[in-house]
Amino acid sequence: MTDAATNMRLKLPITCFILQIILIILFGAVVKYDHETDAKAWHNMTESGHSNYDNDFYYRYPSFQDVHVMIFVGFGFLMTFLQRYGFSSVGFNFVIAALALQWATLMQGFLHGLHGGKIEIGVESMINADFCTGSVLISFGAVLGKTSPVQLLIMAMFEVTLFAVNEFILLSALGAKDAGGSMTIHTFGAYFGLMVTRILYRPNLDKSKHKNSSVYHSDLFAMIGTLYLWMFWPSFNSAITAHGDDQHRTALNTYYSLAACTLSTYAMSSLTAHDGKLDMVHIQNAALAGGVAAGTAGEMMLTPFGSMIVGFLAGIISVLGFKYLSPILEEKLKIQDTCGVHNLHGMPGVLGAIVGAVTAALATRDIYGDGLKDVFPDVAKGDVEASFQGVRQAISLAVTLGIALLGGLIVGFILKLPVFGAPPDTLCFEDDVYWEVPGDEAGHEDQLTTVRTEESEKLNS
Amino acid sequence: MTDAATNMRLKLPITCFILQIILIILFGAVVKYDHETDAKAWHNMTESGHSNYDNDFYYRYPSFQDVHVMIFVGFGFLMTFLQRYGFSSVGFNFVIAALALQWATLMQGFLHGLHGGKIEIGVESMINADFCTGSVLISFGAVLGKTSPVQLLIMAMFEVTLFAVNEFILLSALGAKDAGGSMTIHTFGAYFGLMVTRILYRPNLDKSKHKNSSVYHSDLFAMIGTLYLWMFWPSFNSAITAHGDDQHRTALNTYYSLAACTLSTYAMSSLTAHDGKLDMVHIQNAALAGGVAAGTAGEMMLTPFGSMIVGFLAGIISVLGFKYLSPILEEKLKIQDTCGVHNLHGMPGVLGAIVGAVTAALATRDIYGDGLKDVFPDVAKGDVEASFQGVRQAISLAVTLGIALLGGLIVGFILKLPVFGAPPDTLCFEDDVYWEVPGDEAGHEDQLTTVRTEESEKLNS
Amino acid sequence: MTDAATNMRLKLPITCFILQIILIILFGAVVKYDHETDAKAWHNMTESGHSNYDNDFYYRYPSFQDVHVMIFVGFGFLMTFLQRYGFSSVGFNFVIAALALQWATLMQGFLHGLHGGKIEIGVESMINADFCTGSVLISFGAVLGKTSPVQLLIMAMFEVTLFAVNEFILLSALGAKDAGGSMTIHTFGAYFGLMVTRILYRPNLDKSKHKNSSVYHSDLFAMIGTLYLWMFWPSFNSAITAHGDDQHRTALNTYYSLAACTLSTYAMSSLTAHDGKLDMVHIQNAALAGGVAAGTAGEMMLTPFGSMIVGFLAGIISVLGFKYLSPILEEKLKIQDTCGVHNLHGMPGVLGAIVGAVTAALATRDIYGDGLKDVFPDVAKGDVEASFQGVRQAISLAVTLGIALLGGLIVGFILKLPVFGAPPDTLCFEDDVYWEVPGDEAGHEDQLTTVRTEESEKLNS
């Protein structure tokens, strides 16, 4: 079923080897342990009074592991809903992520500031690298089933770079806050991916239409992804906030936002079906929108009440998007968004950015006390008014949309070059193009054999 | 396959929306951050000498995440063993839990004590809300396959309320200890659910009998649930015990109880089968009984030796229950207990309560040292004798059984009202009633098509 | 399909009960809480100035839980790739591990030093017990599909004992370092298992050949195991290193080693296939070799650069092993290595040991500062030169290989005794020998029924 064009035997190894060897050389040249992972540096600190417990490892490593599960199992299995694309969903997710987290370490390290010409790394940089990787995997969701692994690795390299630039502009240049990444991760990843899939538009994709759907067990595998994303989202949003009340509050806000979102998702899924039956696509995706929408404001004094309203709205918007907007986007705008990332990451990300801007604009010292310096350091220092912090947040959303769309446009055209082994229209959503695929259940074949035998007997009788 | 009675298009959205909007309003009115999630309050504490590490987040959040996984993946996938009920098992588990944890926050917060008329929340209340949710999911296991989502949401609201009342009586009024919830969670959830399923008795359930069993892959999905419950049970039992040795010891006791339980489960499963073959039902369920049975005494000085005896017995009792008691309960008492919660949560919960009472009665300052004030504060203060603490524990078991059975009776009758869209006897254990269900494996259909084609050719030849 | 020889009705229960009762008695006789799990002892410490946070529980419990997931879900599901051996893979993994961790507690406790004639246990001993269990599960991978549960339990008892002896020689007698167990866990488990499977060689195993392969969904289940092993390997390698920079650095090194390994695995998998298609066997296994190979040097100042080179090489070696070496081992050396543990644990373990020896030999106080005493205490004290520490490491590898091969030889012959109910050659890789196995998908049977009906109609027309 593989022809020369999609044969990866040279393309994939060359891409992987070259990229990995470049990464190793660059790591050798510019990366070093930070003061908490370096034996000498840390022991100098403990001798000057720090306890081992002050090591950021103990503050952040449990959150990191949850984020790591979201990236590899959460995103990976969420995309296994397609009937014949499970190997690619999990497997390409795996290799893209393994590449992206290395490149992200370099790009983010370079832009977040060098130390004596070196990038210093530790658990916080590992979380940030995973976050950046998450953004790439969102874009992967938009083009799922229609790209070769080489295209995906190339996309990852470009997208990580642009992600780091956008993140730098938002957090460092503009002074915006976005701990859980409503803007930097979700909005960016979604609109970048949507633009890429727009450029890669396939007018004859309906030739693979029968494979662009789920089967019973593939939907159950996808629920593994959904649930891990849902359960660990509180860790995601709180992973790099300030220590103490900030991590604690962010986890709590996200927890209630997701709970409310789940109820509104079930309600809307049933309401929008003519026979009132729940749709797995909504449950798998829209129930997560509450985590996306709490990404910016989660660390702020959003209150549980505010968090629940945000989650409630996010679930409604997301189901409506899947039901009514996605078909329009595909038909009118030629955006073939396989996983519906616009509904899970795009619109809820924008909602989260707006909620963040409003919540920031309403911040006062009366509400935050001395905690203001953790959440809004510039406001606490008196450099800016809270209302201006809100404006910064809003500008950040606009910048993110701009860079994502423009970046996606350019990268889309690069990926369109006919050298990367993209699958033909007839073989989209099909593992067999790039994977050795075994047969199906032995049991069934036995049964089928039985059927055949019985028939033969009947026919011969 | 859906008729008007089971059409959820109005019932489910209305139920979800009304309940969620009430919850949002109540959260707005009475819920606030506690002193560890509130920016101002926590920073007042750090300025008066507390370190960020004193924030309870760092003591409990890793345990919380494990508990969270047990609730959503553990319970959810454990129930996917049914061949055509995987969507409902995972999906209803999801929405019930998302509702229950919100309502539990309010009910438990109200009964555990208001602060200036407000409920204060943080990681400990989140764990408690998840615990209460666990109890509802146990009851869900008893009625699995025979109820509509609306019935389940209604049941959750009532059960959470009664759970909070029972928990208040046990822990606050009676002064019992039950950190891992042998009584409050497992015994309560099991007997409540058993009574509900008794009231909802379906004499003609055998019309759906062929669907009330597993298939090969559904049993593997269920093992995902089993293993996550098993692995994280040490976190469950230790999640809200006192800091330090208490959390540490509880996790250790539970670890060894579960290990011993697993061996006795395998032994009994093989021993009770005429051909010595292991039964997945036992492995999936009975191997967990050691965690249930260590729920009360786990935080006490039970010793590893004691923990292993408890686990060993729990496994034996549980397998015997599945093999010999469940059929009797169904035939004689008309209790149709789909998941056998009586064997996993009911009897082991009672065993755990008894072990807890005995262990408490044997407590001495010589054994516990100053740790006595963490585990048995009233005994440490000299308010009561250890033997009386044992009596308190025994009374607590009786109270729990009483409230669970009476509560289940009343709630069962409410759920019997013919307005909630329960499935007909012929369509129990069937996702298709409430879900859009896709076809099965594409590969197979292809093969079947092949079969059909071959046959046609043969027939036409 | 079960005959008398493989009937487990007496053998399995007797084995489980006797072993478990012996374990309980021994635990009662010699095991007690350590000073951090004992109420009195810990409270004596807190009163003399320790904070609850100093309790090792908070330093290690999150790592322990990750390790626990690797043991039960990681190893268990990794082996579900076989089409009809999922119950046994997950289920035997479960019971072996539950036994092994108890026995390991005793063996390791006995050899690591008694306290007043007692073994003291806490979270660190739990991690060590899980580590030892991991080694047994690696050996299980070599004999997968060809052994009865009784054989496996017997093997576990012997292997745990030998593991503890080898570990004692390496860490205590020789003074080697091996925090993540490249030698003690991976090399030992692999070569022990390979020798056992050599002794149990089945010349007629090709009678079960058609079952010794995967089907579509079994490969997806296996990816659950792979990903949990991959994600949590940083926790595995860092779980028992010294607090502070050591845990932090080890996790970081492992993270980058695995990322680089994943890229080289994908490259090699595609490169070695004539049509360039990726092979799930490689992805599921070789991508993990980077974690194995970082097991010894991970805690050292390997640098991210060094870690990536190690991971990169490990992936290449592992894929080459699967592709070219395993067939030779099977044909020439009669080693039937079901899971290819030689490629995932054997060769990468040896690589890791060598990397550890070299890195140790290069250690200087200039690089490690005062951290030298954590990683190489004997070097820091001036008892030995760094170069001699390297020699110690190399000797440790040789000792490990010797004990593993000799131990596997002896245990292999014990397991060959024809009393343990091993499956016949025709029924290897088949759950049905030891498990009640349900049918396959209901949906399919319905469809098949339809086919049959249609045919009957056609035939009758």
Automatic annotation (TrEMBL), chains A, B, C:
Q: Does the keyword 4Fe-4S apply?
A: no
> What is the name of this protein?
Ammonium transporter Rh type B
Encoded by which gene? RHBG
Top-rank lineage group of the source organism: Eukaryota
Q: What subcellular compartments does it reside in?
A: Cell membrane
Which family is this protein grouped under?
Answer: Belongs to the ammonium transporter (TC 2.A.49) family. Rh subfamily.
Keyword Transcription in record: no
Organism of this sequence? Lates calcarifer
Q: Which UniProt keywords apply?
A: Ammonia transport, Cell membrane, Glycoprotein, Membrane, Transmembrane, Transmembrane helix, Transport
Q: What does this protein do?
A: Functions as an ammonia transporter. May play a role in the elimination of ammonia in the gill.
Where in this chain does the record put each Ammonium transporter AmtB-like domain?
A: 44-419
Q: Which InterPro entries match?
A: Ammonium/urea_transptr, NH4_transpt_AmtB-like_dom, RhesusRHD
So where does this one cross the membrane? 12-31, 67-87, 94-114, 126-145, 152-171, 183-201, 213-233, 305-325, 394-415
Task: Kindly list the biological process annotations in GO that this record carries.
Answer: ammonium homeostasis
Q: What cellular component GO annotations does this protein have? A: plasma membrane
Recorded GO molecular functions are: ammonium channel activity
